[in-house]
Design brief:
The protein is of the alpha/beta class and 221 residues long. It has 7 helices and 9 strands. It is globular.
């Protein structure tokens, strides 16, 4: 669907509703890089803690804890501060600084930031939010790593409003549920991807015991 893979050094947004597989997508992206390509990775979690994330991903046969012990993976607990007196930019500055340092120290080639919704809500002003997202994407790009960022899909309607972060990232992948006759089907759609041709048609996917499996030649209907 994207000529074989995400272009190196780019930041791609993965959006989807609850249970669509956004965190699985991130883990599989990192797992594949480590196990198949020898590319070290960083998982920055703005929601889930290390224990729960590793336990959930072990169901797919991925021993991420082992990778961390071996020095191939770093888990960053990037949960935003709930300090009412804290300025919104403080957690962002900490996040950017820590990611840059960790990528440099580990020589990581892949980064996953899951999910940016809490970060986005720290900046209710649209202009400030745009600046914050641009700084995040710019920082990730400067590291040279290929990055996945996730966010919630805020509507399940076919004609959904485009979110500001979709304009700013280099690619957008949408995980959604669509009607197919009397039943529903999970569908993956590549809305945009720089530096590569794309198949813009929604294609069915499943979350199996070994991760996400996409069927790029099948129709969702």
């Amino acid at each position: 669907m994207i000529e074989g893979g995400i272009p190196g050094g780019r930041s791609v947004l993965v959006v989807g509703g609850p249970g669509s597989g956004k965190s699985v997508f991130c883990a599989q992206f990192l797992q594949y890089g480590i196990a198949k390509l020898g590319q070290k990775g960083i998982y920055a979690s703005l929601e889930e803690n290390r224990y729960h994330f590793y336990r959930e991903m072990s169901r797919f046969g991925w021993d991420l804890e082992k990778y961390e012990r071996e020095g191939s993976l770093k888990f960053l607990d990037a949960s935003p501060s709930f300090d009412q007196d804290a300025a919104p930019h403080r957690s962002l500055e900490q996040l950017l600084h820590t990611i840059s340092r960790m990528v440099s120290d580990l020589k990581a080639k892949r980064v996953a930031v899951d999910a940016i919704a809490s970060l986005v809500f720290e900046f209710p002003d649209l202009l400030e939010r745009r600046r914050a997202l641009l700084r995040l994407i710019h920082t990730l790009s400067e590291t040279g790593a290929t990055s996945i960022l996730t966010n919630e899909l805020r509507t399940l309607e076919t004609e959904r409003p485009v979110q500001i972060e979709e304009y700013l990232t280099h690619g957008t992948i949408v995980l959604k549920t669509v009607k197919s006759g009397p039943s529903t089907v999970r569908a993956l759609e590549v809305e945009k991807m720089r530096e590569t041709a794309i198949d813009p048609q929604p294609r069915p996917y499943r979350i199996t015991s070994s991760g996400i499996e996409v069927f790029p030649r099948e129709s969702v209907r």
